[in-house]
Q: What sequence folds into this?
C-alpha cells in the first residue's frame, strides 16, 4: 500500500490515507475524487486525484457507469444520479435536513446571510445543507463540500463539543493546521484557546478564517447523546454579529432540535440507533439545553 498526499481541497482522496488494495476501496477513491468540487473529470485527472493507476481507474470507472454511480460523457466522467437518490436516504442526515431546511430559510430571511448546517467528518466539516441568496452565494461552500474544521466557525464549535475532539485536533496538528487565508488559525495553542472559549460561550465566531472579508457565527445543534451538528450564518464582516444574530441562531437551533426529537420518536425506523437514544444528555457549560420534544 502507498499513501496519498494531503491537501486542503476537502477530498478524502487528497488526505494522508493508505491507498486500499480492495476493489471497493479503490472505487470509493474514484468517487471521492469529485469532492473538491469538480463536476466532470477526464480519466487522467480521475486517476491523479484518486491515486488509482490509470488502467485500474478505467476498469473501475466502467463498472461504476454500469451501476449508475458514474455517468460518462465522451472523455469525461461525472457523478451518477443514483448517488443522489442513495444520498437522500442516509438516515443520519435525512431527518435532520428535512427538519432544518425550512427553519434555515426563515433564518436567511431574517439575517440575509448564507446559512449552513454542518457536521464533523474526520478533521473536516461536511456541509449538509445551505440556504443563500443570489447576492451571497459563497464559492467556498456547497452541499456535500468539506472544509478543514480548524478554519471554520462550525468546525471550531463541533471540535469543542466532540467527545473525541482532542483526537481530531491532534490529527489536524500532526499534519499541520491548514491555512485557507492569512487569518486562519495555524497555532495549536491559539486553536485550543478558541475551542475552550467556544465550549464556554456556546458559540464560535470566525473572522476571515475561510475567506477574506467574511465572518461566520456558529451554534451547536444537539442531536441526542453526545452527537452534534452546527448551524451558522456567513456573510460580510459588517453583517455578522453575535450581538445581533446570536439569539436568532440559538432559537433556530432549538427549533431544529425539537423537530428532530419529534421525528425520531414518531419514525424510529428512519434513524440510526445513536440518534434514537433517549433524548439528550447535559450540554457543556455555555451551551443552552435543548427543549424536550412536544
A:
Amino acid at each position: 500500500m502507498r499513501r496519498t498526499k494531503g491537501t486542503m481541497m476537502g477530498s478524502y482522496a487528497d488526505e494522508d490515507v493508505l491507498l486500499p488494495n480492495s476493489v471497493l476501496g479503490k472505487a470509493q477513491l474514484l468517487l471521492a475524487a469529485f469532492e473538491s468540487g469538480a463536476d466532470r473529470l477526464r480519466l487522467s485527472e480521475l486517476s491523479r486525484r484518486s491515486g488509482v493507476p490509470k488502467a485500474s481507474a478505467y476498469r473501475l470507472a466502467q463498472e461504476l457507469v454500469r451501476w449508475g454511480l458514474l455517468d460518462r460523457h465522451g472523455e469525461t466522467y461525472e457523478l451518477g444520479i443514483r448517488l443522489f437518490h442513495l444520498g437522500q436516504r442516509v438516515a443520519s442526515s435525512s431527518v435532520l435536513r428535512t427538519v432544518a431546511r425550512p427553519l434555515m430559510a426563515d433564518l436567511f430571511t431574517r439575517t440575509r446571510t448564507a446559512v449552513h448546517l454542518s457536521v464533523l467528518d474526520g478533521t473536516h466539516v461536511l456541509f449538509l445543507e445551505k440556504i443563500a441568496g443570489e447576492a451571497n452565494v459563497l464559492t467556498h461552500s456547497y452541499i456535500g463540500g468539506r472544509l478543514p474544521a480548524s478554519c471554520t466557525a462550525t468546525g471550531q464549535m463541533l471540535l469543542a463539543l466532540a467527545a473525541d475532539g482532542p483526537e481530531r485536533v491532534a490529527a489536524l496538528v500532526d499534519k499541520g493546521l491548514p491555512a485557507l487565508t492569512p487569518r486562519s488559525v495555524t497555532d495549536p495553542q491559539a486553536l485550543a484557546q478558541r475551542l475552550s472559549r467556544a465550549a464556554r460561550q456556546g458559540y464560535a465566531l470566525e473572522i476571515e478564517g475561510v475567506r477574506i472579508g467574511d465572518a461566520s457565527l456558529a451554534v451547536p445543534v444537539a442531536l441526542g447523546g453526545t452527537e452534534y451538528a452546527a448551524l451558522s450564518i456567513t456573510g460580510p464582516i459588517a453583517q455578522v454579529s453575535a450581538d445581533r444574530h446570536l439569539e436568532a441562531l440559538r432559537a433556530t437551533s432549538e427549533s431544529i432540535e425539537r423537530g428532530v426529537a419529534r421525528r425520531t420518536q414518531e419514525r424510529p425506523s428512519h434513524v440510526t440507533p445513536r440518534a434514537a437514544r433517549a433524548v439528550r444528555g447535559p450540554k457543556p457549560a455555555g451551551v443552552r439545553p435543548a427543549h424536550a420534544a412536544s
Remarks:
- DSSP finds nine helices and nine strands in the chain.
- The beta strands are 41-42, 70-73, 76-79, 114-121, 124-131, 146-148, 204-207, 214-224, 227-236.
- The two ends are 52 Å apart (CA to CA).
- The longest helix spans residues 242-266.
